[in-house]
Amino acid sequence: MIVTEIVEISKTKAKVLLDNDRCFALYKSELKKYRIAEDAEISQECYDMIMGEVLLKRAKLRCMNLLKSRDYTKHQLVIKLRQGIYPEEIMDAAIDYVASYGYVDDLRYAKSYIECAGKTKSRRQIENTLFGKGISKETIEQAYEQCFEEDSITEEEVLICRLLEKKHFDRENATYEECQKMIGFLYRKGFALDNIYKAVGGFE
Predict the structure, then answer these.
(1) pTM higher than 0.90
(2) CB distance 109 to 47 below 8 Å
(3) Per-residue pLDDT of the chain (204 residues; tens, 9 = 90+)
(4) N or C: which end of the chain has fewer CB within 10 A?
């Protein structure tokens, strides 16, 4: 493997690009330690040492430090590690490591988020948020099933009624225009039309 380019990232770190389209980041002191320079060759032994002894340990520690403050999904950890220019196999290994100890668990994350956000948000809003965090549809459905089994989620009809009360909506005396406006408001919140119609009334 040949080093094609070394790009400075900061005063202390640099990005190393290889001729096999791989890249990684090292501290400048490590460049000297492993004798890495542009147009110089890196032996397989040296490359393996950098991957296993330096970057993998660093990626694991990065994940552990992130998870100390709050929960992350696997996708969110990938984004964080990618910012550190870790190779794909290093990212996968580091995330597998913390997952093996239960420090990162997408199902647990989704369930916790649903239990919390489900008190005020529609299922569609929650699903869109979890999709954005890289959680799969199957995992979200499984999390919802567990929440329903444990009775730890508020029914959508109840949430709609709470919003109607908060908006001081009087379904008995509301005009057609007022009903339509409320239907649009609730639909944009992500609630199912069937539940909206039942709550607002007159449009089943």
Answers:
(1) no
(2) no
(3) 899 999 999 999 999 999 988 999 999 999 999 999 999 999 999 999 999 999 999 999 999 999 998 899 999 999 999 999 999 999 999 999 999 999 999 999 999 999 988 888 898 999 999 999 999 999 999 999 998 888 777 788 888 888 888 888 888 888 888 888 888 888 888 888 888 888 887 544
(4) C
CA distances from 10 to 7, 38, 176 (A): 9, 18, 62
H/E stretch holding 65: helix 56-69
Inter-residue contact 144 to 114 (CB < 8 Å): yes
Residue 194 has a CB neighbour count (10 Å cut-off) of 11
